[in-house]
Amino acid sequence: RERLGDLLGHWAPGRDTRPETSRRSYSANRIMAAIRNGELVNHYQPKVELATGNVIGVETLVRWRHPQDGMVYPDQFIAVAEASGVIERLTGWVLNEALAQSRRWSLAGIDLRMAVNVSMNNLASISFTDFVTEEAQCACVPPARLVLEVTESRLMRDPRAPLEILTRLRLKRFGLSIDDFGTGHSSLRQLCDIPFDELKIDKSFVHRAWEDETSRAVVAVSQGLARQLGMKVVGEGVEDREDWDFLRCAGCDHAQGYFIARPMPAEEFLAWLGEWRVRVPALLAPSPS
Ligand code: C2E
Ligand code: MG
Ligand code: MG
Ligand code: MG
């Protein structure tokens, strides 16, 4: 199995700018209780079109407002949720909430693609297709407006089930995105087997790519692949103007990252949108430096 990350032997750890939190781990029971007690909250991070600055969608990123520990980020509980099976309930909650939000925005005249991260462990049973279809229908969200972002997991038991489920979802016109492309978890094999319509270049290749030959090569190769396969390319981890300009020059379709916006609660989105529209003209002009 060839992995782009391994082939190129490249790994640049992403700069984490959020406040330093203690590395706790939480039990499956505690995570389950958090879902029941309403301690989870979805934040949304915009995806924008590099050529125009238009906002084309948002990605849902779950957070846990822990009553004692404060804001807990997914890296501290998704793995346990996956290993224990709690991920089924967690994804159900996140999806339901994201679709309700998508509907609210749509009624307010804001039609954006809503992306939800789905674990490979969610793709173990065929009923997931019906589950997603029914949830979208209940929320009056057309399939093409929902995007499922998938990252490969080592815990995957039977690789055939995900393949079948994803293919069925694609046939129903749901969007499929291969997340963290270029890292050990998103391989070329997957890209060939699954009908993705979006490829997200991992942030470790995007931030400061302009000064790193290897990263630039990964971005170029990923883009070439995506073009050939008819997929849109998103660069994630755009942290500064240099990253933004680099992706624009490289001909990448979409961008996501702290430079554009941090993941935010739904209530802040409209205000951000207003500010963004003011920022865009300067970002489409040649870089001031
Ligand atoms: P991901 O799907 O690849 O999401 C991107 C991660 O990068 C998010 O971290 C986001 O907050 C962060 N990020 C965004 N822009 C920047 C930037 O400019 N620089 C840097 N350094 N980071 C940036 P987060 O929210 O901690 O989520 C981590 C991972 O947890 C996600 O990676 C995703 O794989 C997983 N995850 C998040 N929400 C869910 C969920 O609801 N279900 C599942 N199964 N997984 C989730
Ligand atoms: Mg994602
Ligand atoms: Mg990613
Ligand atoms: Mg990730």
TrEMBL record:
GO terms for biological process: phosphorelay signal transduction system. Residues 24-277 form the EAL domain. GO terms for molecular function: cyclic-guanylate-specific phosphodiesterase activity. Keywords: Phosphoprotein. This is Transcriptional regulator. The lineage of its organism: Bacteria, Pseudomonadati, Pseudomonadota, Betaproteobacteria, Neisseriales. The chain holds residues 118 to 406 of 406 of the full protein.
